Amino acid sequence: MEVPIPQSKRVNLFQRDLLQIHIYRLFLHSNEIPRRIRIDDIKRVFPRLAESSIRKRLKTSANFRRTDDCNSWILRDDFRLPTEDEICELIKPEFCCAYASMTAAEQRLKDAGFCEKYNMNFDDDEQSNYSPELNDEILQAPWNTTRAYLGAIKGKYLMQVFGIG
C-alpha cells in the first residue's frame, strides 16, 4: 500500500471519513434520548478542523438544537445510525497505518526545517535551494519510498538497494 502525500486528495478524503466515523460513534455512545452530541466534543478530537467542516458532516445525520444550557446536534428520526461493524468497514486499517506513517514523517520533515515541498518531484531550480542532507530526508519520506517501491515492482523504476536509509 502506498503512503499518501500530505494534503493530497486521498488524505483529505480519509480525514473526512474519519470525522464522519467519530460523529457516528459519538451518537452511538450517547445515553440521552433523543441521541445528541455537542460540537465541542468533536473539536477536542479534531482541533485543527474548521467548525464549518464539522457542521457540514453533522448536517447529513443531525439537526441543530439551541437550548438555554447548551447547543447540541440531535440525531434525525429518519437517519439510520450505522452499526459498529458497518462503521469499521468505512476505513481500512491499512490506510490508518499509512496515514499515521505520513503524519509522523510530515512532522519530522517540519522539525528538520521543511515547509511544504515533501514530494521528490522538484523542478531543477527548486532543488538547488536545499542541502544534500535535506534532500536525502525528502527521499526517505514514506510516500516517496513506497511509491518508488511499488513502481519498481511494476517495472517502471529501478530501486537503489544501497546508500541512504
TrEMBL record:
What Gene Ontology molecular-function terms does this entry list? histone acetyltransferase activity; RNA polymerase II general transcription initiation factor activity; TBP-class protein binding
> What GO biological process, any one, is recorded here?
RNA polymerase II preinitiation complex assembly
Segments forming domain Transcription initiation factor TFIID subunit 1 histone acetyltransferase: 1-165
Q: InterPro entries per the record?
A: TAF1, TAF1_HAT_dom
UniProt keyword annotation of Nucleus present: yes
Q: Give the record's keywords alphabetically.
A: Nucleus
Location(s), subcellular: Nucleus
Show the GO cellular component annotation of the record: transcription factor TFIID complex
Q: Which Pfam families match?
A: DUF3591
Q: Where is the signal peptide?
A: none
- Fetch the PANTHER family from UniProt: TRANSCRIPTION INITIATION FACTOR TFIID, TRANSCRIPTION INITIATION FACTOR TFIID SUBUNIT 1
Name of the protein in question: Transcription initiation factor TFIID subunit 1 histone acetyltransferase domain-containing protein
Organism of provenance:
Rotaria magnacalcarata
